[in-house]
Design a protein that fits this description.
Elements (H helix, E strand, L loop, with lengths): L4 H12 L6 E5 L5 H15 L4 E5 L2 H5 L28 H16 L3 E3 L15 H13 L8 E3 L7 H10 L22 H13 L9
Parallel strand pairs: 1-2, 3-4
């Protein structure tokens, strides 16, 4: 759970299906790390989740190669990019899923839920359904024989507007979520993530409850 809209809705959907949630959050030296952690903790409170893991991964900053972790690379604000965006963090979801698998095995969990969205995130290779399914297979090959973990992707075929609509249906506290790549106080409204979010709310015919510049 990043503190963003997609992973928050995924958590609410899992809870709605009767699952007990073990919440996992990653601090990876991203530009809005403090805000994302704050949102994660508030969302856990709203969900009454007591079993929380906050994992610190400082090597992403050393790796660089992404506008989210390398301060020398500008976060783009001119509209969605073609191809793989500069905000792509190399193999991030693969690393996150590997760590989540270790936690899931320790906790005896049946599922890992991840809020990947294939259509809106088409430039991110680690958000594809085929990739996540391959990770599920690898996780089960690399864990104990009695461990059998399914990776759930409840949003993978949804549009952002449908995510907004589903969130409203499940009374997800969208005012606690954060999507901006650039700012931590007031959302910029012009980075790729803000644009996707705002367009989703526009198409859903509702107003985003968070503040924008």
């Amino acid at each position: 759970m990043s503190g963003g809209m997609d992973s928050t809705l995924s958590a609410y959907m899992m809870k709605n299906d009767g699952c007990e949630i073990v919440a996992v959050h990653f601090n990876y030296e991203q530009t809005t790390q403090a805000k994302e952690l704050e949102c994660f903790l508030k969302i856990c409170d709203a969900l009454n989740v007591s079993n929380r893991y906050v994992m610190d991964l400082d090597f992403f900053k050393q790796l660089g190669a992404s506008a989210l972790t390398d301060k020398s690379i500008e976060i783009p604000t001119n509209g969605l990019e073609e191809g793989v965006p500069i905000t792509y963090v190399p193999f991030r979801n693969g690393i996150f899923l590997s760590m989540a698998a270790a936690i899931a095995e320790k906790e005896g969990a049946e599922f890992i839920a991840i809020g990947v969205v294939e259509e809106d995130s088409s430039g991110y290779p680690d958000c594809r359904e085929s990739y996540i399914k391959s990770m599920e297979q690898s996780i089960n090959l690399g864990t104990k024989e009695e461990t059998n973990i399914e990776i759930k992707m409840p949003l993978v075929h949804m549009k952002k507007s449908q995510i907004v609509e589903k969130s409203l249906q499940l009374s997800v506290p969208l005012e606690l979520t954060w999507s901006c790549y650039k700012n931590e106080e007031v959302a910029c409204g012009v980075c790729d993530s803000c644009r996707l979010r705002l367009n989703g709310f526009k198409l859903a015919g509702v107003t985003d409850p968070i503040e924008y510049e």
